[in-house]
Design a protein that fits this description.
It contains 13 helices and 13 strands. By secondary structure, the protein is α/β, with parallel strands linked by helices. A seven-stranded mixed sheet has the order 3-2-1-6-7-12-13, sandwiched between helices. A four-stranded parallel sheet has the order 9-10-8-11, with helices on both faces. It has a two-stranded antiparallel ribbon with strand order 4-5. Helix 1 runs parallel beside helix 11 and helix 7 crosses helix 10. Bound molecules: 6-O-phosphono-beta-D-fructofuranose.
């Protein structure tokens, strides 16, 4: 009799609403439709290297559809660079052994850009890999959507809605910081949906004078309050140039030593910009004479119940992932494509990022309704 195929699942990177819906969708389809067994690994690639397994079957997959976070836990650990007892070590070989010990037919990794890169490494090390795209940042390449973005968009939009009434009452500028270090989908989407007066995103470096002028113009027309939606990675023009140069140095590094120096320089630059939103509010107060306040939405955007759209997306990507494992189509990510899904080779996804194109319809719409984008 043929052995029952066993599929492993892990969640890696920052959590996002809908991860449990994806685990459930994949697990239920794998068990119910394809007659497979499902095991989970705790805390991303670290739990896989440690072989910390959880059996996912029977009731293990029930009652989790609407639950936020991930029942498996997650971490940002990478297979080839994991901190162990104060040392950074390559645990790829341990992962391969854990995979074989578990008797896996395939491993499904649910994660964002970093996870896609790690998954490609494991595929190259000989593992059968399928991935699903998740991140509230919506910046995974070659997929229309990522699990968690729709929920985060709702949360951030509601926050901007609520900030309107208090900004209006006090005649203040409220600068709302939205997540997104490298991509501005969330700030742009929530800013547009919430009617922010200014939207600042990493893809469009801003000039603080331009922002102040837009706010002053509103005051001249009798509107003494403004909402500024700013992505955490938005930068002033000069800073953006320095940042691009530092990133280019990382990309151009010729050996590990050069890369380590370039990465450290980039990290130092990022650290220096941590207070950007507070500095921006302060500058706007100086330049406009209006009192300014900051609201950092932070991890609220990643927490809690997934929206119906994220539950749907997670369920259909999970279902398609199980189908790919059953048909032995590996080294692919399940991309969302319109109402359907499409397997995309991992080497087309890993190392790429989907950022907001300058001619995107959301950018155009924001400009057409008079929103200042800071440029
Ligand atoms: O990748 C999603 C994200 O939420 C980013 O927007 C944010 O910058 C980052 O994760 C922060 O995550 P953590 O503090 O968990 O590493």
């Amino acid at each position: 009799m043929a052995r029952t195929k066993r599929v492993g699942i892990l969640t890696a990177g920052g959590d996002s609403p809908g991860l449990n819906a994806a685990i459930r969708g994949l697990g239920k389809a794998a068990i119910g439709r394809h007659r497979m067994e499902v095991v989970g690994f705790r805390d991303g690639f670290r739990g896989l290297a440690d072989d910390r397994r959880v059996r996912l079957g029977g009731t293990g997959l029930s009652g989790i559809l609407t639950v936020g976070g991930t029942i498996l836990g997650t971490s940002r650990d990478k297979p080839h660079k994991m901190a162990v007892d104060g040392q950074v070590v390559d645990r790829t070989a341990e992962i391969v052994r854990a995979y074989e010990r578990a008797g896996l037919e395939a491993l499904v990794c649910i994660g964002g850009g970093g996870t896609q890169r790690s998954a490609l490494r494991l595929a190259r090390a000989g593992l059968n890999i399928v991935t699903l795209p998740k991140t509230i940042d919506n910046d995974v390449a070659v997929t229309d959507a990522t699990i968690g973005f729709a929920t985060a968009l709702e949360i951030a939009t509601e926050a901007i809605d609520r900030l309107h009434s208090t900004a209006h009452s006090h005649h203040r500028i409220i600068v709302a910081e939205v997540m997104g270090h490298r991509a501005g989908w969330l700030a742009l989407g929530a800013g547009l949906a919430g009617g922010a007066d200014v939207i600042l995103i990493p893809e469009i470096p801003y000039n603080v004078e331009t922002v102040a002028e837009a706010i002053r113009r509103r005051s001249h027309h009798g509107t003494n309050f403004s909402i500024v939606a700013v992505a955490e990675g938005a930068r002033e023009r000069e800073d953006a140039a320095a940042y691009r140069a530092a990133e280019a140095r990382v990309g151009a590094a010729r050996d590990a030593e050069e890369k380590a120096v370039a990465v450290a320089a980039l990290a130092a630059l990022e650290a220096a910009h941590l207070g950007n939103t507070l500095r921006l509010a302060h500058r706007l107060e100086e330049l406009t004479g209006l009192e300014s306040r900051v609201t950092i939405l932070g991890y609220v955007q990643r927490g809690g119940t997934p929206s119906p759209l994220d539950r749907l997306l997670a369920t259909r990507l999970g279902d398609a992932g199980a189908e790919l494992v059953a048909s032995r189509a590996f080294s692919v990510m399940v991309a969302a494509r319109g109402d359907g899904t499409e397997p995309v080779r991992l080497d087309r996804v890993a190392g790429k990022r989907k950022v907001v194109p300058p001619d995107h319809t959301w950018v155009a719409a924001a400009r057409h309704v008079g929103t200042c984008l800071g440029d």
